[in-house]
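Two proteins, back to back. First:
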Amino acid sequence: MNYAKALEMSALCFPDRTAVIEDGKEFSYRQLNEEANRIASSLVTMSVQPGDHVAICAPNSYQWIAFYFGILKVGAVAVTLSSALGRDDLNLLLGDARPKVLFTTKEKLSDLDEGTAKAYLRSIVSEEAEFSFGGLLEKGTASFRAVDRVRTETGAILYTGGTTGTPKGVMLSHENMISSAHNISHFERTYKEDRAMCVLPLNHVFGQIHIMGSMIYAGGSLVVQPGFELDRVLDAVERHQATKFYGVPTIYIRLLKTEGIEKRLASLRYYFVSASSMPAELVRAWKSLTGYDVNEAYGMTETAAMVTYNHYFRHVVGSVGTPVNIVEVQVRDMEGNVVPDGSEGEICMKGPNMMKGYLNNPEETKALFWEGGWLRSGDVGVFDNEGYLFVVDRIKDMVITGGENVYPREIEEVLYKWPGVEECAIIGLPDAEYGERVTACVVLKEKEKELDEKGLKAFLKTSLASYKVPKEYILLDELPKAPTGKPLKRELRKQCQKMVKDRK
């Protein structure tokens, strides 16, 4: 088994179909497969062997995709790092993964710690390094075939975003990735005629497995963008007649504000939101504007993306759907006992897409699993009587105020109904009387100059218990977010604590 064989099969079945579109240039499956072969054979001449780590630290591009599959074809492990990493974080993660080869941009070369890199890096592939992408293509052979691997062997290492602490290297096996790519393409009804916009980073599990992996598995086309630039993305959707769009809530908020957006997105038949749940109010607004649902699923880096899916044919607003093929989901209490439907507890999962473990971190790996291989998500959820899962919130984000447990997402859903709120996040700040006070961090819509706190509090009290109504409101120009678009609540707490301290 080798995850790269999905590319080989699509190249065999659809050699002349477009695999990747970048800046208007189209690359066929035959070309992508042959160039991945050339990369793979060149890596062999650089002494890369099955099981060796090879890192990628670069923005989204056709070259990123070809190099990634070249690594996998050799049987090596693709270590995918964010191109947004600063010097210290980059060297920290490289030191953890210790790759033999690094593919990066010339801008990143100056960030490498020379002393540390020399301890494990044998070669760097970059425009101004000893080896270049073009050079590897020239000396490689197009006839290379993917090396067979045991299904449980590691195929890729993806680092968690570090939203709750130091990033951890998630080891995904070939079985993990193939099972997820299959489930995603099946449940999303992906066809070879589909063209998917890929604006989210490929180093992240969503871009890498959910978008890229499922499209290549299905023989569809990827319209690759380095990031989200509104005009550039809308132009690409229209020019290439994209059929699928994947974004984070912030992107959909921006699109909803764009005049005539429904006409510019006329070719799209499918929308999906990742990183964090889309507020129900925004889902309804999008359906009203475009006639389409914004689909959601549940998953994490440790599960190689999809665990549940909010069905293509029976979409339930606010839910993340039901378990996908060969994946089991349970809701358990803190002692590990399964709770009945309708009761809240921690979401736990088991299936062929559960990670092998964290790189160099057996203690954290052991702590993540219940007996029997059930992975603990750290999220609070509840099943309804039809088997649909609803995510209540992150356990670590829960606010305890006056002895009461408060889940931020419930309050955020109501806040989004207030006309002047564009984005919001609920956090707990230290409080001498309550332990933590519920605090609303709010980004106002452009036309709003100030927040009517009195009116907002009265509005919230019509839907929430009094102890859940925020005691403090902090206005921000924007919420701190990870490159994936997920709000960084740990950073938000630090920022707001400093603001409150400075006010005093």
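And the second protein:
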Amino acid sequence: MRKFVGTALAAVVLVGVGTASAQTRNTAFSRLRMVRAQCTTGPCDPFFTFGGGSALIRRAKQPKMVTNKKLGKVRILELQALGPPSIPASLDASVSGTIWYGDDFNAVCPLANTIVSGEFATSTMNCVLAVDGNAKCSGDLFFTNFTPPACSDVSQVIQNVTVEIYEGGGVGTPEKRIANFGINIIGKLPDCASGGSGCP
């Protein structure tokens, strides 16, 4: 079951790091690179591509309440329109993950020792057209809600982080998803002059 929660990151923001015993302090930030979103038959949104992009997630600490608290930034560079739709005025970003809540020594936090999955941050990214017709789209990431005061002393760890970027108003619609957090592996033709593998 998917729950939508906004949260503060208390002790750590862990994105692909080792066990808790290997790292007990949170890092200043995590940078997640964006790649073109792929669905079962190819790019999810066939009308747009881009040259690069990233989401920067900054350190957050308890016990600060995080209603509308800034979490980081997200951007897409060289957004190009490949079809009839023109480049939109804005894009929407959604950040989801699995949140582990720790012990509550006061025994008053209803989220203590629970696991919740779902969206915890969003952004509206403004797009600015360049002279070449491409666009740079960027915006601040904000937590979608706040941690209840009764839980301000409970540590939280967020893992399995997913960042998705959609055409404006298209969050949750696969055909409108332009980018995801991922890795691009660029292919290179073999050197057939030296008898490289893959040559005819």
